[in-house]
Amino acid sequence: MIVITGGAGMIGSIIAWHLNTKHGRDDLVIVDHITHENQWQNLVHRKYFEYLDKYQLFDWLENNEAASDEITAVIHMGAISATTETDFNKLVESNIQYSQDLWSWCAVNKVPFFYASSAATYGGGDAGYDDASIENLRPLNGYGYSKHFFDQWVLKQIAYKQPTPPAWAGFKFFNVYGPNEYHKERMASVAFHTFNQFKETGTMKLFKGTKTGVEDGMQLRDFVYVKDAANVVVHFLTGALASKPVTNGIYNVGTGQARSFKDLSENVMKSQGRQPHITYIDMPVDLQGKYQYFTQADIKKLRNAGYKTPFTSLEDGVSDYVKNYLMQEDPYC
User: Fold this and answer.
1) CATH number for the domain running over 2-177+223-256+296-311
2) N or C: which end of the chain has fewer CB within 10 A?
3) Each residue of 224-279: pLDDT tens digit?
């Protein structure tokens, strides 16, 4: 069995989709803590063995005597992912301590462990976006710091020769967009917001270029399609399950090519067969000073680890998302 925490979330549910459809596996234990009224729909097309609330998982592991033998991997995508979360105690509990407990269980029971980090750990990007060294990063918000803290904690386990899972990897996901993100509301991708705003109002609101040298709508991000993000995780998983050498480490997951929000929005509108229209607005006060103007994954380390699959272009990813999901009566993957 494969445990997927955050399995009803965007990336987690697409990882489950990948395992269902590409590998024919339904021996999945989906773990989540659903709070949005429609998030359960991320699971309606999935095949899985068991669903657990996140607060049930450790009791289930403790009380299921066969768990340590039957569980072949843990994919830990669950977290508080809102960059606007201000209660750091919640971030400590969910993003740090829960992750540490899962890592420790996998280390004791010799189970491969793969987890979600975030490009938010890079902060404003002053130290670059190279995953070869993560020591001097300065996240811009509590969410980014919680992910950075766990990354550093993992590396300390290695450095101090503490027990570790037999195979492990952390994934610094850049700006992921695609199906099954509908429950994320404000934190959903600009692609999703563009589709809905344009459909309702005939325009899309983007931030003005409030930073010197940045034109309106030209803030740059490394937009990565969610199916690609899932494919990276499954690549490492299948290597571990096949007892092939896995290069343990923390990896950027992005295309390696930054594109503007303007590019993204215009492609969403064109995919609907309509003429793009954008309205530029001031940045909200709660984002000022906590906003990344440029992200671009350095993916040399990922390529050197053996992941050679090309990433989906922005044009192709947006087209698939809009035409095969957002424009369909049932938009869930």
Assistant:
1) 3.40.50.720
2) N
3) 999 999 999 999 999 999 988 779 999 999 999 999 999 999 999 999 999 999 99
